[in-house]
Design brief:
By secondary structure, the chain is an alpha/beta fold. 40% of the residues lie in helices and 16% in strands. This is AAA+ ATPase domain-containing protein.
Length: 283
């Protein structure tokens, strides 16, 4: 029998609401009160080559600079050591991140799911997975189970660590990169969608042109706004460049549009009240 509770009666540690800050404009999109919250699951999707891995690594590296005590882990199920070493050449700050490489190994008695759980049990503030689909596939093959079962195992692990079921009692936040279809749609079950706190999408202004402007937006967000765009560039060495000036202009324009919309609604309400009064008087 499930307990029935009132939200007003629930108590949480205040530290649970102290977000991780990156010191960039991206903090404003990650949460309405800025930064990456604790114990949440953010899915990152986008077309190939748009910069999903780079954005996630950059976010983690920046958080590490602002909050050096934050324990972060990048789980790579797609790229090997050589692949990621190229990232470090271009973005040296990535070199200080903790990375766990996971590859299918059918000859060893140690399986990916056991290694993954063992490392997570150490207790991490932020864990990034690149990608969920690849890790799910590795677990499927090694354990000889269905994709659905592999997904269930992964989601159960993530949920436990969201709720601080690890040795350090840390409410872990997960940044999971996920595959998309050719049309750019999210790949995953309804259960996976339900587990997601926010869906971060990396998109191109012109999907047919890989060189067109790129932006970050949220299509689902339990902790912030949806539809707001933050443009970025990967052409610079050392850091992801966020177009703060463009973001500020867009923010002011949205604020102005909201003010105009509010005024129009007020005028419409006044007109309706006046019309109803006139109509009542005539009757």
């Amino acid at each position: 029998m499930r307990d029935v509770v009132k939200i007003s009666q629930l108590e949480f540690d205040k530290d649970l609401f102290a977000n991780f800050m990156s010191g960039t404009t991206l903090d404003m999109l990650l949460c309405s009160y800025r930064g990456l919250p604790k114990g949440v699951n953010y899915m990152v999707i986008g077309d190939p080559g748009v910069g999903k891995t780079t954005i996630v690594l950059d976010l983690m590296a920046n958080i590490g600079k602002v909050q050096p005590r934050a324990r972060m882990l990048f789980v790579s199920a797609e790229m090997n050591e050589i692949d990621l070493s190229i990232y470090v050449r271009r973005y040296p700050k990535f070199g200080e991140l903790n990375i766990m490489f996971i590859e299918a190994d059918f000859e060893s008695d140690d399986h990916a799911i056991a290694d993954f759980e063992s490392v997570l049990d150490e207790g991490w503030d932020i864990v990034a997975i690149d990608s969920f689909y690849e890790l799910q596939g590795i677990i499927k093959e090694e354990e000889n189970i269905t994709l659905k079962k592999a997904e269930s195992l992964l989601l159960a692990i993530i949920k436990r660590h969201n709720k601080a079921a690890n040795r350090r009692h840390i409410h872990t936040s997960f940044l999971t990169i996920q595959q998309v279809t050719k049309s750019g749609a999210f790949v995953g079950s309804n259960r996976l969608k339900h587990m997601i706190t926010a869906m971060m999408e990396l998109r191109l202004d012109n999907p047919k042109n890989i060189y067109s402007d790129r932006y970050i937006t949220f299509s689902k967000h339990r902790r912030g706004e949806v539809g707001v765009k933050l443009y970025y560039s990967l052409t610079r060495t050392g850091d992801v460049f966020f177009d703060d000036e463009r973001f500020d202009k867009d923010s002011k324009l949205r604020h102005l549009q909201n003010e105009v919309s509010t005024q129009l609604h007020e005028y419409a309400d006044r007109f309706n009240r006046l019309f109803n009064n006139i109509h009542n008087d005539e009757q």
